[in-house]
């Protein structure tokens, strides 16, 4: 039987606010356990939450970016359950009236085609703390669990998709699109390794052609693009095998184990918590007026899809170049600056994807950590375009900039004497000298069939370039040599 | 000096009749002598009180005394206080010391008041008799066989017994007004959102409100001046200017329109309580007020709605007491579930457990719409009843409680106990302010007159009560304590 996979994603994006969603404690990653948890985060008796406006603005920006409706009123609810790293015994979330309504995210597949994935809604909530089992696995305190509440109260935007994805690849593309949008908006650092984006995956299978959905399993703890594909691949195979053996998929929550590359049952529907949601009486409903939303809309940055279209349509880049250069905001911003400084989109694209990307890859650096700034690279490309230096010298200048040997391309060109020689007289003098010094080669050239001479000219070009220490304009050298040698024939 | 009002004490302190230290020492002495039997305090802070009194005396000497500088008071043990334990009347928090002061505590400290300690209360403010305290019941100073009311029973009894001139209470369904009535003192529950709830241990967040309990309406006004105002730490605390609540005191009542809700004078009202209340209303008529009957048609839904909403919020608010980070933890838990179960089973008393169970049930899947949602709809109707009534009249009056203080141990049935709050509970659901002022006695036991106004009309309520107190001396009556004479 042919099976079709149906996938929906719940993506938790950690918002890049400086303080927590309901307290003034810092959200910085990596501090000593429990040093960034104030009385509110600890859930001490008597404390009250106060909503961080920055988190609201970030959520609304996301909503606007996916063309979602932004309801005038949204409400925080309490999700009640007991867990040691959940200090209050409830998580403040949004169950009934989320801040972002239905929207659409466009994904780009590997073959370049696009597909819209509907977002059901996105809501704000607070993160829980962390339970640390590993710290106490041996020695004193064996079997105990530590609680770190630094993360408790960190703002999360949970983005819930419709079950619109039909393959692991589509799911990964959707996750990448979300990643791209939130980093473009600057509302999250998108750092998956530090847990800034986490993902729960709902997977079911159904016979191809069947309309009704199969029973789904929810896979938790899927925290990288790669894991999403692997977890889905495993789960789809598990479900198909189960069904083909005459079994039934049970609705349950499963945990992805990246080390064993498998999913394991955590709890079935019968064991599921009743979270007893109700509106949080400590927080007022969030009421957003049109002016507030309009202001955020007017100040939205250019988003990935718009940027890709502009690169392709206005700058005349190929679809491939446009897609690579718009993949992240850092990349796009870098490219845009190089382009503006040098004035040539195609050349800028070549340099960013060629020399720069190669160097970054070699040293495993992110573009934001590039030792060559976009302005420096732009100025370098400009010197190539205005014939100040030739391509060979340009690579030398780039390497020098990379190594920090000068503040600008011009400084390096000046210091290393790389300025291209275009003075015909000077080039002619060098050519005459080379011809005079190479009687044997000149004789060979003269004796050769005219149609073989083209290849033989390379030797003379090399000698002239060498004599000019690479600075002679290669095109001029070529033309002048040909004239002079042909005159000898 | 233990019979004086705050206003009188300030005049004495200003005149140099005695110092704040002398006053504080005198009251601490009375507490030491009398409170063993009365049980109105959970914690008495002798040293901190004397240090605060000395600071107040120094401020006065330097000419920097405000209206409350050097005045002793007591705090219901529901307000978090830095360095002094805060129990909420529960074994769960028997050893809990908050690392911060509640906003109300901070404000009262800044005003120069001298806290003598933390008063007894029903556990987590759940109760109408103060019999639900882990620290034992409080006795009514007027009659030691009677309850002082609840949940702010310790605060009311301490003021009535002359242990302290004023105390701060909280009111979720009548917890300031009913004990004030039972103990013959004056208590005010402000409009919801008037006073910050930050640092006040939550029972039912949408209903809880702190307020003053004292010997006169004027004293309540002085205290509310210090307590009220917006707090950035409490989103439900309104951004609205704070008037000087003493400013309207002295306004004549001629032309005041008083409404008597017919539902507050029906079945179940003790005839002697009714008689006292009707006498009091005659006093207002003699002061130039007009009286008419009004209707609050949804009154009989108030108790059921309250006992859905308040336990629902409580069940969630009390989840944090899980034995993990603070509060009572059972000995030798074998696993996490055991830790939760035994810590909570041991830490909470019966009434708290009952309300957690009710709240957990009403919020459960399949019941939420039938209970919680319906109760919220009823709540809106109850609020509308009051808004409609205040279209016609300026204030509403009636009894604060259907009976005078009942005997200790008399109300064993929880539902009987819940019905005690029939006249006070709707006020919290509507969010409006309400007061109880002494208006007579049934035998030895005081009767409270309840005065209600629309949202943010505390100034008017306080003046209405003040005018009554200028015309009567019920609020000046003091119980004769046997130990005092010994």
Automatic annotation (TrEMBL), chain A:
It catalyses: L-glutamyl-tRNA(Gln) + L-glutamine + ATP + H2O = L-glutaminyl-tRNA(Gln) + L-glutamate + ADP + phosphate + H(+); L-aspartyl-tRNA(Asn) + L-glutamine + ATP + H2O = L-asparaginyl-tRNA(Asn) + L-glutamate + ADP + phosphate + 2 H(+). Keywords: ATP-binding, Ligase, Nucleotide-binding, Protein biosynthesis. Its EC number is 6.3.5.-. SUPFAM superfamilies: GatB/YqeY motif, Glutamine synthetase/guanido kinase. One of its GO terms (molecular function) is glutaminyl-tRNA synthase (glutamine-hydrolyzing) activity. This is Aspartyl/glutamyl-tRNA(Asn/Gln) amidotransferase subunit B. Pfam families: GatB_N, GatB_Yqey. Residues 333-485 form the Asn/Gln amidotransferase domain. Allows the formation of correctly charged Asn-tRNA(Asn) or Gln-tRNA(Gln) through the transamidation of misacylated Asp-tRNA(Asn) or Glu-tRNA(Gln) in organisms which lack either or both of asparaginyl-tRNA or glutaminyl-tRNA synthetases. The reaction takes place in the presence of glutamine and ATP through an activated phospho-Asp-tRNA(Asn) or phospho-Glu-tRNA(Gln). It is an enzyme of class 6 (ligase). Belongs to the GatB/GatE family. GatB subfamily. SMART domains: GatB_Yqey. It comes from the Bacteria. The keyword ATP-binding applies. It comes from Billgrantia desiderata. GO terms for biological process: glutaminyl-tRNAGln biosynthesis via transamidation; translation.
Automatic annotation (TrEMBL), chain B:
Transmembrane segments: none annotated. It comes from the Bacteria. It catalyses: L-glutamyl-tRNA(Gln) + L-glutamine + ATP + H2O = L-glutaminyl-tRNA(Gln) + L-glutamate + ADP + phosphate + H(+). One of its GO terms (molecular function) is glutaminyl-tRNA synthase (glutamine-hydrolyzing) activity. GO terms for biological process: translation. Residues 22-462 form the Amidase domain. The keyword Ligase applies. The active site is at 76 (charge relay system), 151 (charge relay system), 175 (acyl-ester intermediate). GO terms for cellular component: glutamyl-tRNA(Gln) amidotransferase complex. Keywords: ATP-binding, Ligase, Nucleotide-binding, Protein biosynthesis. Its EC number is 6.3.5.7. Signal peptide: none annotated. Heterotrimer of A, B and C subunits. Belongs to the amidase family. GatA subfamily. Allows the formation of correctly charged Gln-tRNA(Gln) through the transamidation of misacylated Glu-tRNA(Gln) in organisms which lack glutaminyl-tRNA synthetase. The reaction takes place in the presence of glutamine and ATP through an activated gamma-phospho-Glu-tRNA(Gln). This is Glutamyl-tRNA(Gln) amidotransferase subunit A.
């Amino acid at each position: 039987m042919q099976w079709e996979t149906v996938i929906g994603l719940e993506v938790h994006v950690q918002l890049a606010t400086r303080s927590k969603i309901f307290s003034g404690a810092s959200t910085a990653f990596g501090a000593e356990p429990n040093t960034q948890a104030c009385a509110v985060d600890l859930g001490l008796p008597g404390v009250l939450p106060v909503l961080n406006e920055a988190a609201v603005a970030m959520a609304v920006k996301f909503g606007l970016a996916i063309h979602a409706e932004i309801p005038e009123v949204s409400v925080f609810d309490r999700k009640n359950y007991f867990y040691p790293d959940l200090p209050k015994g409830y998580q403040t979330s949004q169950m009934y009236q989320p801040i972002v309504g239905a929207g659409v995210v466009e994904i780009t597949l590997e073959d370049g085609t696009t597909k819209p994935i509907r977002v059901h809604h996105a809501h704000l909530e607070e993160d829980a703390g962390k339970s640390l089992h590993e710290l106490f696995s041996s020695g004193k305190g064996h079997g105990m669990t530590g609680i770190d509440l630094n993360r408790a109260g960190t703002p999360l935007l949970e983005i819930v998709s419709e079950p619109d994805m039909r393959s692991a690849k589509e799911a990964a593309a959707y996750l990448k699109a979300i990643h791209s949008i939130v980093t473009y908006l600057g509302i999250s650092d998108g750092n998956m390794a530090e847990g800034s984006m986490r993902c729960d995956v709902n997977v079911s299978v159904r016979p191809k052609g069947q309309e009704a959905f199969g029973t789904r399993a929810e896979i938790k703890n899927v925290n990288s693009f790669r894991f999403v594909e692997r977890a889905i691949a495993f789960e789809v195979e598990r479900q198909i095998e189960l069904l083909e053996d005459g079994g039934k998929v049970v609705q349950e929550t499963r945990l992805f184990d990246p080390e064993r590359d498998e999913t394991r049952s955590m709890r079935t529907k019968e064991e599921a918590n009743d979270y007893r949601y109700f509106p949080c009486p400590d927080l007022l409903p969030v009421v957003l007026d049109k002016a507030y939303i309009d202001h955020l809309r007017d100040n939205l940055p250019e988003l990935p899809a718009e940027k890709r279209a502009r690169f392709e349509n206005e700058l005349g880049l190929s679809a491939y170049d446009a897609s690579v250069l718009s993949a992240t905001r850092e990349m796009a911003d870098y490219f845009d600056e190089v382009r503006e400084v040098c004035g040539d989109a195609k050349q800028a694209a070549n340099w960013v994807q060629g020399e720069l990307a190669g160097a970054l890859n070699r040293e495993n650096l992110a573009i934001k950590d590039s030792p060559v700034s976009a302005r420096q690279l732009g100025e370098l490309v400009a010197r190539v375009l205005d014939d100040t230096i030739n391509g060979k010298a340009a690579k030398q200048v780039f390497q020098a900039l990379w190594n920090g040997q000068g503040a600008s391309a011009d400084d390096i060109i000046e210091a290393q004497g790389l300025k291209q020689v275009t003075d015909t007289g000077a080039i002619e003098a060098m050519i005459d000298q080379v011809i005079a010094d190479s009687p044997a080669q000149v004789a060979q050239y003269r004796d050769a069939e005219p149609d073989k001479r083209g290849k033989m000219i390379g030797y003379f070009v090399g000698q002239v370039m060498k004599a000019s220490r690479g600075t002679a304009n290669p095109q001029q050298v070529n033309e002048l040599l040909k004239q002079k040698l042909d005159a000898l024939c | 000096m233990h019979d004086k009002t705050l206003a009188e004490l300030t005049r004495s302190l200003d005149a140099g009749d005695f110092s704040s230290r002398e006053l504080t020492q005198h009251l601490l002495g009375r507490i030491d002598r009398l409170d063993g039997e009365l049980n109105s305090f959970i914690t008495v802070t002798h040293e901190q009180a004397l240090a605060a009194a000395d600071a107040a005396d120094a401020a006065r000497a330097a000419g920097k005394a405000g209206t409350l500088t050097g005045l002793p008071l007591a705090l219901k043990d529901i307000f978090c206080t830095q360095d002094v334990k805060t129990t909420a009347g529960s074994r769960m928090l028997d050893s809990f010391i908050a690392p911060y002061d509640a906003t109300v505590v901070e404000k009262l400290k800044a005003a120069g008041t001298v806290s003598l300690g933390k008063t007894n209360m029903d556990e987590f403010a759940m109760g109408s008799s103060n019999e639900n305290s882990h620290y034992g019941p409080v006795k009514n100073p007027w009659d030691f066989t009677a309850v002082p009311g609840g949940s702010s029973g310790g605060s009311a009894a301490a003021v009535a017994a002359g242990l302290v001139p004023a105390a701060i209470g909280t009111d979720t369904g009548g917890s300031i007004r009913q004990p004030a009535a039972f103990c013959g003192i004056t208590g005010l529950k402000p409009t919801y959102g008037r006073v910050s709830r930050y640092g006040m241990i939550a029972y039912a967040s949408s209903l809880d409100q702190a307020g003053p309990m004292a010997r006169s309406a004027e004293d309540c006004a002085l205290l509310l001046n210090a307590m009220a105002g917006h707090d950035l730490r409490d989103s439900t605390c309104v951004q609205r200017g704070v008037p000087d609540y003493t400013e309207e005191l002295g306004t004549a009542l001629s032309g005041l329109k008083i409404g008597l809700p017919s539902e507050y004078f029906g079945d179940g009202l003790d005839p002697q309580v009714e008689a006292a209340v009707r006498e009091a209303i005659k006093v207002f008529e003699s002061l130039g007020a007009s009286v008419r009957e009004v209707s609050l048609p949804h009154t009989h839904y108030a108790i059921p709605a309250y006992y859905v909403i308040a336990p629902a919020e409580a069940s969630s608010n009390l989840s944090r007491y899980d034995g993990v980070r603070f509060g009572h933890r059972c000995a030798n838990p074998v696993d996490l579930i055991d830790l939760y179960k035994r810590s909570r089973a041991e830490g909470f008393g019966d009434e708290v457990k009952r309300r957690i169970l009710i709240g957990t049930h009403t919020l459960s899947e399949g019941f939420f719409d039938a209970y919680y949602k319906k109760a919220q709809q009823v709540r809106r109707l109850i609020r509308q009843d009051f808004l409609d009534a205040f279209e016609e009249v300026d204030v509403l009056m009636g009894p604060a409680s259907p009976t005078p203080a009942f005997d200790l141990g008399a109300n064993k049935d929880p539902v009987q106990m819940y019905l005690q709050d029939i006249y006070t509970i709707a006020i919290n659901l509507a969010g409006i302010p309400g007061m109880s002022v002494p208006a007579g006695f049934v035998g030895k036991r005081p009767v409270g007159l309840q005065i209600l106004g629309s949202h943010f009309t505390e100034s008017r309520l306080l003046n209405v009560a003040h005018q009554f107190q200028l015309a009567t001396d019920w609020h000046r009556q003091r119980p004769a304590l046997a130990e005092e004479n010994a």
